[in-house]
Each structure stands twice: as C-alpha cells, then as structure tokens.
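Write out the bound-state structure for magnesium ion.
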Amino acid sequence: MNKIRIVFTATMSAGKTTCINALLGTELLHSANEATTATITEIQASDVELIRAFDSNKAIVKEVDALTADTLKVLNQSQQVQEILVKGKFNFSENLVLIDTPGPNNSRDESHKNLAYEFIEEENFDYLVYVINATQPFINDDVSFLKFIKRTIDSDKIIFLVNKIDDFDLDKESIESFINNLKNYLNDLGFVKPIIFSISAYRALLINKFIRQEKLSKKEKRELFSFLENEHEIINLAYTPFSPEQIAHIKAQKRFECLGDEFEDYEYLNHIYCNTGFPYFEFSIKNQIFLLNK
Ligand SMILES: Nc1nc2c(ncn2[C@@H]2O[C@H](COP(=O)(O)OP(=O)(O)O)[C@@H](O)[C@H]2O)c(=O)[nH]1
Ligand SMILES: [Mg+2]
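---
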C-alpha cells in the first residue's frame, strides 16, 4: 500500500496544529496562541506507540515507546530536536502520514523560517494543506510564503483551508464574499483553480473531544455548548471538488459509531459536526488515500 503524506503549513497561529489534532480526534499536539511548533512532526497510525526525536543531522536524540502529549510538548520545544516521528493508535488509515510544520513567520527565531521553507523545497509529500486564518487574512507573511509555494509546488498538490470561520460575525461579514475574495486573490497569485474548504478546526476538535469523553476546560465547555445551541452554518462549499451528490453523501455518512445506536442525539451531533466544515476536508483526504491505492 502506498502511504499518502500530507503536510500542513501556514503562517503562525493559523491553526495547523489544531487541524491535525481534529483529524486525530484528540489533543495530542500542543497548540497555543504563541508560536509553539518549532519542529517538523510526522504522525502515523500504527499498532505500536512510539516517539522518536531527531536532531538536525537526523541522528536520534530520544526514543520512547509510550505516547503522551507532555513528552511531545517537551521535545517540540527542545532546541536540539528538529524532527519528531510519532506513531500511535489513531482513528485513521495507516496509509496516512500527517506532518505538522513550524510557520515561517516567527520573528523571534529565524530557524523556523528556514525549516518551513526547506521542508517544502524537499517536496517529500503528496499534498500540501495551506491553512489560512480567516480572522487575519492576506497578511504580508502569507503573500511571500504563498509566492514561494506557487514557485515550488505543483498547484494540483495544494489544498487551502480557511480556518477560524467560527470567529466571523455573521451579521456583519459574509463567508461567501470572503471565500470569493480569497479565490480571486489566489487566482492573482497564479493558483488557477484553488480548492478551498472553510472550516472551524477548533469546533471539530471540541466535538471529537466531547465524543471521546476527554476532559474539556471551562472555556471549551462554554464554547462547545454555545456552539451546539446556536448551530449556525459556517461553511461554504463553492470551491470544493464535490458534486451535490457527494456533498449529500458526506452529510449522511455515519460517524461516531462509538456512541452506540442508543445515543439519541446522534443525528443532531452529526449535523453540527458537518456545520464545522471539517468532515468535507476529512472526506477529501480519505478519498485521496482510496484513489492512490485503487
Ligand atoms: N476561534 C478559533 N480558534 C482556533 C481555531 N483553530 C485554532 N484556533 C486557535 O488558534 C490558536 C493557534 O492555533 P494552532 O493550531 O496552535 O496554530 P498553528 O500555529 O498554526 O499550529 C490556538 O489558540 C487555537 O485554539 C478555530 O477554528 N477557531
Ligand atoms: Mg502549531
């Protein structure tokens, strides 16, 4: 079976790490409002648990056979560590490798920039997911980084995620016009037919944590419940690769089987999860694995 390698990249704090956590369904990687990711982290589903950290010469500096978020956090912040390989029992195909990278715009640390650029230049991946922060779009850092990506990577390999859509004030701003403007902006940069998903990775992660009965902080609880109550639809599927039939199929997909049939709010939860936009992105990834191994 061929493995499919997906790298997540973006300017700082756009939500790369939160997206990967949402795909994992758990808060494995440390995410915060400061620049936390100082390393390249590769994550694979496996029967065994493993964390292996490498220095800049690719020599192993630490290896442990248990997977904890705390160990990862420490290694991620260690000056000595440049790459981390993570294996564990995740709820996705063993053929998928998710790669978290540091953003290129951490002015405190020039090596962040180099690492992000070097990794992309090596092109050792099948897809590049570029995460855009909807609350802070089109900043200068994005422009130069996007121009570099356009020059370096085949456009067919790029997926754009517009994240933090939940932060929009829908009475004042329209998601549709935001996405249209973004599409025009990407066109101007040379991305002819960009694929764009609008998502709230944070909400998708909260729902996943809730379902797995992981501990939520007070703030997370508040946000989850207000989101469950207000159920506003924040997605825009205009620039996704899906037909109306496929969209209907994705909406109707069975998720969260772990809750059992007797969980009465199943359909509602599924509906709310679809409203985060995240399942459409998830589906596109699963579809790529399927196509690659057909
Ligand atoms: N409102 C909102 N906040 C988010 C979302 N995704 C991430 N964040 C927050 O943005 C901050 C940076 O996220 P992180 O994933 O660490 O960004 P990274 O630097 O790109 O890896 C954290 O405080 C996250 O909780 C989202 O969909 N909505
Ligand atoms: Mg990060």
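---
The first strand starts at residue 4 and ends at 9.
The domain at 4-46+89-201+234-241 is CATH 3.40.50.300 (Rossmann fold).
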